[in-house]
Design goal:
Elements lengths: L4 E2 L1 H4 L7 E5 L6 E8 L4 E5 L5 E7 L2 E5 L4 E5 L3 E5 L5 E4 L4 E8 L4 E2 L9 E2 L11 E8 L3 E8 L4 E6 L3 E15 L2 E6 L3 E4 L4 E17 L2
Antiparallel strand pairs: 1-18, 2-3, 3-10, 4-9, 5-8, 5-10, 6-7, 6-9, 8-12, 11-13, 13-14, 14-19, 15-19, 16-17, 16-18, 16-19
C-alpha cells in the first residue's frame, strides 16, 4: 500500500490497556484527532463548548451521552454528533479506533442527521444514474463534511481544494489522481491531500466516499 493511502487504525493503532490520541494536523480552528482505545479502557465523560463529531474507524465502542447517560454504540463508518455543553464519554470491550472533530463554531447539520444518534454514513446518500451525488452532512466556516456517491463511469476532473482534506472510501473502489500520480482506494481506506493539491477521483464501478475538508 502506498504511504498516501492509509487507514485510521494504521495512523493510531490500539495499545493494550491504553487510550491514545493523535492530532491529524489538518488545521488549528477545527481540531481533528485520531483516538484509539485498547480493549476494556474508557475515557471519562466531559463536555465541549462547541459541537463534537465522532466517526468510527475500527472496532465497536460505546459513547455515554448526556447527564443521565444514554449508551450509543458506534461502529466503523458511522457518525455521531454531540451538541455543545453535552457530557460525553467513551468505553469499549474490544479495541476501538475513531476520528474526533471539534470545531470552534456552531455547525449547520443536514436534516437527515440527528444529534445523539449514530448513523451509517453510506446509508445517507443514494446513487443517481449516470451522476455524482453530493450530500453536505455538517459544516461551518472552518470545515465541511460531505458524502459523495459516484455512479459507474463517473468521476471528478482534476481540481484544487481550498483546504487540507481527507477522503475515505465507504463503498467500492476508486482511483485518486494526486499531483500527477494515481492511487487506488477501496472501502475502509483513506487518502489525504493538502490545500491546493491537484487531485481527481475516478470511480471503478459504483463508489461512495466521505470528504472532510478543513477551511483555514
Amino acid at each position: 500500500m502506498s504511504e498516501n493511502v492509509f487507514t485510521v487504525k494504521e495512523k493510531r493503532p490500539p495499545r493494550s490497556a491504553m487510550t491514545v490520541s493523535r492530532n491529524a494536523k489538518l488545521g488549528s480552528r477545527c481540531g481533528v484527532s485520531w483516538f484509539s482505545l485498547g480493549a476494556g479502557t474508557d475515557i471519562s465523560r466531559e463536555s465541549y463548548d462547541s459541537t463534537a463529531v465522532y466517526i468510527g474507524a475500527y472496532g465497536t465502542g460505546t459513547f455515554l451521552v448526556g447527564e443521565k447517560p444514554e449508551n450509543v454504540t458506534l461502529k466503523p463508518d458511522e457518525m455521531l454528533i454531540i451538541p455543545p455543553k453535552t457530557l460525553c464519554g467513551t468505553m469499549c470491550s474490544e479495541d476501538f479506533v475513531y476520528t474526533e472533530i471539534i470545531t470552534e463554531r456552531e455547525v449547520i447539520m443536514n436534516d437527515k442527521v440527528k444529534a445523539g444518534e449514530a448513523i451509517a454514513l453510506k446509508d445517507l446518500i443514494s446513487y443517481e444514474e449516470g451522476s455524482i451525488a453530493n450530500l453536505d452532512v455538517v459544516h461551518n466556516n472552518t470545515m465541511k463534511f460531505v458524502l459523495m456517491a459516484f455512479d459507474e463511469g463517473t468521476g471528478l476532473t482534476p481540481h484544487r481544494a481550498p483546504g487540507n482534506a481527507i477522503v475515505t472510501a465507504l463503498e467500492g473502489k476508486a482511483v485518486i489522481g494526486y499531483e500527477g500520480k494515481d492511487y487506488e482506494v477501496e472501502t475502509g481506506q483513506s487518502f489525504r491531500f493538502e490545500k491546493n493539491g491537484l487531485h481527481s477521483v475516478t470511480a471503478k464501478g459504483r463508489f461512495k466516499m466521505s470528504l472532510l475538508l478543513v477551511l483555514e
